[in-house]
Amino acid sequence: MLQPRMAAIVSMIFAAAASRLLPHPPNLTAMTAMALFAGASLSDWRLALAVPLAALLLSDALIGFYSHMEIVYASFALIVGVGLLVRNRRTVPVIGAAALSSSVLFFVLTNFGVWSAESMYPKTISGLIACYVAAIPFFRNMLEGDLCYTLVLFGGLALLERSIPSLRKREALPSPA
Fold it and tell me: What does pTM read for this prediction?
């Protein structure tokens, strides 16, 4: 059986993934925030990686699979890594910077993937720039969603921890000498 803290975090991650099933503007989803939150909140790095990727896979199975999923999944795995890097420094500025960095990371990697794998842009620097420029309107929505959902997930957990003591992260006790 899951411990209460882990159950709450996993539930929040799957709820964030389920939000993809609701009508929303293009790219305004909780997925990047979900991956960042998992990395920063789940104590075992393997679960931090597996849970959001499983939630993403489940939502993709319901929505429909798409080309170049491997690039999207690799991007989210790296975003979990960003979460792992900030897990012991969870302040508002650090989490905000991590959310912004994660948005940029996803934008750069996935659009590079589109440019390199598809034929819609020439394989030149001009073609790469055109690909990034064409994606800017989607980046705006993504950034807004990432920042909003990051606030909801991290703030929601902080509120839950404050009101339900069993959800608070247990600090490791020093070992006797």
Answer: 0.91
